[in-house]
Amino acid sequence: MTFKEIQQQVGLLQNLIVKSRAIIVNGHFVDVSHLDANANYLFSQIKDQCSSLSKSEMILLSASVETLLSHFDKLKDALDSQHTSLSSEAKVSPNTVIAAYQN
């Protein structure tokens, strides 16, 4: 994979993360397992190509990866928030549920 292809893949993965986070923030669910597979593939390609990249390409790629990782952190925060929200909603008293269905 060339430097340009790696940069394109970083951009595509970043877009997937941003879209996934937007879906989650809007209260919907999204399967993020494909992000893990894509990230693993991308980082293996980066590792394989590191020695063939120039210093300027490495600097650019490093900045891109840092940005990508910050998007992953934001996605993690959104997932944690969604999980916390779901966990607290699941703790509804059985009497409340029964009363709701009796009305």
Question: Can you tell me about this structure?
Answer:
With 103 residues, this protein is mostly helical. It has helices spanning 3-25, 33-49, 55-89, 94-102. Helix 1 packs antiparallel against helix 2 and helix 1 runs parallel beside helix 3 (55-89). The radius of gyration is 20 Å and the shape is elongated. The termini are far apart. The mean pLDDT is 86.
SSE layout and pairing:
Layout: H1 3-25, H2 33-49, H3 55-89, H4 94-102
Helix pairs in contact: 1-2, 1-3
Entry summary:
The chain is an all-alpha fold and 103 residues long. The chain has helices at 3-25, 33-49, 55-89, 94-102. The mean pLDDT is 86.
Mean pLDDT: 86
Measured distance between first and last alpha carbons: 63 Å
Low-pLDDT windows of residues: none
How is the quaternary structure best described?
single chain
Helix content: over 70%
Shape: elongated
Count of DSSP strands: 0
- The fraction of residues assigned to DSSP E strands is under 5%
Distinct helical segment count? 4
Descriptive keywords:
82% helix, mainly alpha, single chain
